[in-house]
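Handout, tutorial session.
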Amino acid sequence: MKILLSGLLLVILSFQKISAQDSLTINKIQDTTIISKSNIGDKTHQFSYKKLIIPAVFISYGITSLTVPGLKNLNSSTQFEISEHKPDHIRLDNYTQFAPGVLVYGLNAFGVEGKHNLRDRSMIYGTSLLITSAFTLPLKHLVKEERPDGSNNLSFPSGHTAMAFASAQFMFREYKDTNFMLGISGYSFAVFTGVYRMLNNKHWFGDVVAGAGFGILSTEMAYWLYPKINQLLGSKKEKSQTMIMPFYQNRSVGIGLVKNF
């Protein structure tokens, strides 16, 4: 299990490092070449097929693990290995799923600025959590996969893991251009969350991998959609302000909107 999870994290970090290097190259070109900003465009919110590779692979693996015998056996053997060690069940995964997102706000409060201001990053993060919920909640009821502990049939995909990786991807996107190591630090909380969903006997390995894919995809979609959402919520009045904040209460995820005219 440790080898599988280490490989999962290594794939993410390797791909993100390549992505960050590409972004750095673009920035260097902009610094050394006299080209107008309007011609280059803002790469932060542009659609890129390359960013779909990791989530597509993870989601595909999770889906195939539902039916392919070899992958189903891997799910079972992983849970059997966990049950043999009989780990203590802890509920930190209920909180670590949001830790990277909270860190972004905390770092900004202490002067470590990310890519966006409070309003814009709240809009992006809130959209990401909504998209994650839109993916995971209906799928749980459609797939009806039984949890390892037999408590219900809402195992696939792992919602906690999806939220955790959505938050980690949000932290990466905010800090990858200014501090790469800080940006990827959020993935440690995401992997921890996925591991403990299995240690708590709530999810199979395939559920966790798929959850990671849906989480990353949700945040990428939030960044792509941000300019259009911002335009819809914008106002011609200079004094008009809009604030969007995500919230989590009683195991429910939502988003609040406040608009001053």
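The second record follows below. Compare its token runs with those of the first.
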Amino acid sequence: MIKNAATGLSLGHRSLPDHAETAVKRALAKAGLDRANAVLLFLTPEYAANPEPALRAAARAGDCLQVVGCTGAGILTEQEWVLDSPGAAAMVFGGDVHLTMPPRGKMSDDDIVLSLCTPAGLTAEWLDVPARRLGAVSGDLFGHGPFKVWSGARVADSEQVDAIVSGVDGVLNASQGVRALTSPIEVAEVQGYDIMRLGNYPALSVLVQSLPTSVRDMERVPLHLIMGGVTIGDPDTAIREGRYRLNHIVAANLRDQSITLSQRPSRGERLFWAMRDTLAAERDMRACIERSAQELAVAPDFALLFPCMGRGPNFYGNRDRDLDMLRARFPALPIIGLYGNGELGPLDGANHLYQYSAVLGLFGTRTD
């Protein structure tokens, strides 16, 4: 039986083009295809300096010039995740499913666009389009590069890649997976990037009082685990429904009890303090998967999963619980993805750059 999509994975001790060829051939065999309409190819960081031989090998194996993808900190399929070995993950598409290059300025509200970029290619103008974006920022474990993205089996000089996923219906959702430490509180006073007061109290005081007793020390706040969440819409339901954007803490200032954030806060916003937490992330990802399944309303043919490099096995303790839950919910579903240093997906009707999150796309055969 011919399938709309299937994956293949190959890894070893060296970053050889053979891994790309093998991954594509394995995917074609599982899909029952002689050739692919398109190939989605993700490579580990070892390929970033010179990915072209691997791209050509994938194109030959798939008998297809439409090879789209990028390098990432790690790669994954439904078979397993890879963070510590050179390798390639490929998904081949058949039947009516294609990855098509959109004409500039011609993307519509109904389009789902696979979007990949390097840190230098990530711009507000590129992100802000009517179509719904799904993808990641290419990266490595250290954030230094090199980074590469490609389409048409060639490295993209623009450092941006767009490919419309056509021939299937899709739904996109994200799991930010933080544990709320407070309810949303009005931002009462700001100075530049500093929150001075939340409600009637100094911002740092509110944060410290909300922390678990084991880390409640004003001089040793675990800033790497804590962030602010700015709610969107009704603050009473925003946290439960995932309608918030995270604003990361840069510094806690003992002198004036303020907190410096990475994005400029606005007076009148509703902000809650939150902490990264594995149990909260698991619950949120499970809800994200169920919400996606209900919204798709048909059995999915394949999934695209983009977890942050700071999530996945590095976060869950040498297991990727996000991938585990998706595989448990949809056994044998073809899944492909990569670990990047920024995740792209919709939030409140606009495209958003997520951090420390997992963005999921489920795709199924159209019923119309």
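Points raised in discussion: The CA atoms of residues 183 and 272 lie 6 Å apart.
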